[in-house]
From TrEMBL:
Gene3D superfamilies: Flagellar FlhF biosynthesis protein, N domain, P-loop containing nucleotide triphosphate hydrolases. It comes from the Bacteria. This is Flagellar biosynthesis protein FlhF. It is a peripheral membrane protein. InterPro entries: AAA+_ATPase, FlhF, FlhF__GTPase_dom, P-loop_NTPase, SRP54_GTPase_dom. NCBIfam families: FlhF. Necessary for flagellar biosynthesis. May be involved in translocation of the flagellum. Residues 232-422 form the AAA+ ATPase domain. Residues 233-423 form the SRP54-type proteins GTP-binding domain. Its main location: membrane. It is found in: Cell membrane. Pfam families: SRP54. Keywords: Bacterial flagellum biogenesis, Bacterial flagellum protein export, Cell membrane, Cell projection, Cilium, Flagellum, GTP-binding, Membrane, Nucleotide-binding, Protein transport, Transport.
Length: 449
């Protein structure tokens, strides 16, 4: 069988040469790109038929000698067995491979097997890549257009909000002053706008401020003296992040109970086995009050202690401090809820409003019985902590104003807290100008932060 190479600058020209010399029935064996252009290796169909005929010719028979020994006969039978014949396709492939090796020029650049394509495959691959590139370009262009539209929409929204706010100011100029006042006091922009938008028209400045105070006091839920923890009794666990004053507040509540109802009315439990000296601190307070402090390491310990202390009027549990994102919070909360313990969250008045909001959201997952605001004596602004308490509809039990036990603990008073929150103003260095506040007000959504 004879193989022939046809080289041309394009595949079309090479195929034309092939058909002109070998005819329309020629068999294309391979196609590749070389430095000279496209090279096509082909053979005439008649040559392949000749190869097949030769492969099918019977092999010459070996004639056995006239006489032989037994061993010679066995050797002859072994040698005379016909060898397994290769198929027609295998013979053709072997001869084609041999001819190709002899025809390929060693100087011509060759391509890796994975880079050789048939003409149709090459066109298909090129078209696919071009389609992908065009599709990606279109996607990028659409994304850019959508982003521009989004920015324009937000700009128009801000402009409309600003115009609406200016119209509102023209009708009631006190709104701007009250919004600025609430914002500088630490309340969130959304909270301030929600309150100010409902301001009645026709009020004087003093009347407007009184109206604001009445709204805040109405929305700040506090526990009255007849229903505080010491009076109602029960089992309470003080929970919250590290450093908010849980142990000190537990001691203050314990002292109030002992003073009013005696040492036998109180049970003290601690679950804080992580901090060095945490149990010792509470035990010192317990020794002063004449109350034994018990330690609960797990759910079983807590259940057993609750059973043994069930006759106590008030049981206080000092828990380990954990950040609101700590994975142990959920585990510890489950232990307390399974033991039917009421949880009271301590909120540090000096923390950022966003942090306090995050703390409540994580600790509130299974319900809270209320909150206690600590470190009130260290806080410059109270608007943030009151904002969070009202936003999450928490009941305030007490406020802690220092480290003294038991003096620095008071029942929560809405009137006092609101008055102090509106009285405290940020220093000039941390205050925004009127124009800055107006722009900020215009960008605050009326439906969420």
């Amino acid at each position: 069988m004879k193989l022939k190479k046809f080289t041309a600058s394009t595949t079309r020209e090479a195929l034309q040469k092939l058909r002109a010399e070998l005819g329309e029935d020629a068999i294309i064996l391979s196609t590749k790109r070389t430095a000279a252009g496209t090279e096509v290796l082909a053979a005439a169909s008649q040559d392949l038929d000749d190869v097949a005929v030769q492969a099918e010719k019977p092999q010459a028979q070996t004639v056995s000698p006239a006489s032989w020994t037994r061993n010679e006969r066995q050797q002859y039978e072994t040698l005379s067995k016909p060898a397994p014949q290769a198929s027609r396709a295998d013979l053709v492939a072997q001869q084609v491979a041999a001819q190709r090796s002899s025809l390929l020029s060693p100087s011509a650049p060759s391509m890796a097997p994975e880079q050789r394509f048939e003409p149709d495959d090459m066109m298909t691959e090129v078209g696919r890549r071009r389609a992908q590139a065009a599709s990606q370009a279109m996607v990028n262009e659409q994304a850019a257009v959508l982003e521009e539209i989004k920015q324009m929409r937000q700009l128009l929204k801000d402009q409309m909000n600003l115009m609406t706010w200016r119209d509102s100011l023209e009708k009631n100029p006190l709104k701007a002053e009250l919004w600025n006042h609430l914002s500088n006091a630490g309340f969130s922009p959304l909270f301030a706008r929600t309150v100010v938008d409902k301001l009645p028209a026709g009020l004087t400045e003093n009347q407007a401020m009184e109206w604001i105070q009445s709204v805040l006091k109405k929305n700040l839920a506090v526990v009255d003296a007849q229903h505080d923890m010491v009076e109602t009794g029960g089992t309470y666990a003080l929970v919250g992040p590290t450093g908010v004053g849980k142990t000190t507040t537990t001691a203050k509540l314990a002292a109030r109970c002992v003073v009013k109802y005696g040492a036998d009315s109180l049970g003290l439990i601690t679950t804080d086995s992580y901090r060095v000296g945490a149990q010792d601190q509470l035990r010192i307070y317990g020794k002063i009050l004449g109350v034994q402090v018990y330690t609960a390491q797990n759910h079983a310990d807590l259940q057993q202690l609750r059973t043994s202390l069930q006759r106590k009027r008030l049981i206080l549990i000092d828990t380990v401090g954990m950040g609101q994102r700590d994975s142990r919070v959920a585990e510890h909360t489950k232990i307390l809820t399974d033991s039917h313990v009421k949880r009271v969250l301590l909120l540090n008045a000096t923390s950022q409003t966003e942090t306090l909001d995050d703390v409540v959201r994580h600790y509130k997952s299974t319900g809270l019985d209320g909150a206690i605001v600590s470190k009130l004596d260290e806080a410059i602004k109270l608007g943030g902590v009151l904002d969070v308490v009202m936003r999450h509809k928490l009941r305030l039990h007490y406020i802690a104003t220092g480290q003294r036990v038991p003096e620095d603990l008071f029942l929560a008073d809405a009137r006092v807290l609101v008055h102090r929150a509106l009285k405290n103003r940020a220093s000039q260095a941390f205050s925004s100008s009127d124009e800055e506040l107006k722009w900020k007000m215009a960008q605050v959504s009326t439906t969420g932060l």
